[in-house]
């Protein structure tokens, strides 16, 4: 029997995620914020953490971002420059956002472009080996490649609901594996956690 393709896995996972009620998403997002802040607050102090503005049925990471900022992290959000490129712009919980492309909100063009130490990443599917499937546009893959070309290796942490997990995700040579994932049941590291945790 053939294994499901990335497209099939993405479609099935997003269908499950879309089926969550607004109340369920809020409840699970709150649990994710609690687990994430508990696990990352001390480690994130003094570091730049890139969160994201949720679209469709994604986990809302606003509370987690605020909690990490309160713990001393500097925040950033992705901004879409074109169909190929996202950059990360400095942001604070009290900052103003403008439409950022693809239905997202982002800091305006006057905000400083920064290189994050930690990426909190939305996705459609993940597995327990640290493989992920995004939405097919490759924005994060290219952004991670650009950071690597500058000698930067941010911690890649997915933010997802448990129901987005698949037994196995097909991985290609260019795919960057995740370091961990935060869901409503906690944070799981794929391999050893970073020093300082």
Task: Outline the structure in words.
The chain is an alpha/beta fold and 197 residues long. Helices cover 28% and strands 22% of the residues. The protein contains four helices and eleven strands. It has helices at 6-18, 22-44, 62-70, 139-149, and strands at 48-50, 74-80, 86-91, 98-101, 104-106, 118-121, 125-126, 132-133, 155-159, 180-183, 186-189. The strands form three sheets. The protein has a seven-stranded mixed β-sheet with strand order 3-2-1-6-9-10-11. A hairpin with a 5-residue loop joins β2 (74-80) and β3 (86-91). α2 runs parallel beside α3. The longest helix has 23 residues, at 22-44.
Brief rundown of the structure:
This protein has about 200 residues and is α/β, with parallel strands linked by helices. It has helices at about 5-20, 20-45, 60-70, 140-150; strands at about 50, 75-80, 85-90, 100, 105, 120, 125, 130-135, 155-160, 180-185, 185-190. Strands 3-2-1-6-9-10-11 form a 7-stranded mixed beta sheet. A two-stranded antiparallel sheet has the order 4-5. Strands 7-8 form a two-stranded antiparallel ribbon.
Which features characterize this protein?
single chain; 197 residues; alpha/beta; seven-stranded mixed β-sheet; 4 helices; 28% helix
- Main sheet record: 7 strands, mixed
Taking pLDDT < 50 over at least 5 consecutive residues as the criterion, the unreliable ranges are: none
The assigned structural class equals alpha/beta
Q: What would you call the quaternary organization?
A: single chain
Order of helices and strands: HHEHEEEEEEEHEEE
Distance, first to last CA: 42 Å
């Amino acid at each position: 029997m053939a294994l499901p393709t990335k497209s099939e896995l993405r479609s099935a996972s997003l269908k499950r995620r879309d089926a969550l009620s607004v109340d369920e998403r809020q409840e699970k997002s709150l649990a994710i914020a609690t687990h994430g802040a508990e696990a990352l607050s001390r480690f994130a102090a003094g570091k730049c953490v890139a969160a994201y503005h949720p679209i469709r049925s994604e986990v809302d990471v606003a509370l987690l971002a605020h909690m990490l900022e309160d713990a001393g992290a500097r925040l950033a959000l992705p901004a879409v420059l074109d169909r190929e490129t996202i950059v990360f712009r400095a942001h604070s919980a009290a900052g103003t956002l403008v439409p950022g492309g693809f239905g997202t909100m982002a800091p305006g063009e006057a905000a400083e472009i920064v290189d994050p130490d930690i990426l909190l990443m939305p996705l459609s599917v993940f597995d327990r080996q640290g493989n992920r499937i995004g939405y097919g546009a490759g924005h994060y893959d290219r952004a991670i490649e650009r950071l690597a070309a500058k000698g930067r290796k941010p911690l890649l942490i997915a933010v997802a609901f448990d129901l987005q997990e698949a037994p196995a995700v097909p991985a290609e040579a260019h795919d960057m594996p995740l370091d961990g994932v935060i869901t409503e049941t906690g944070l799981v590291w794929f391999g050893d956690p970073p020093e300082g945790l």
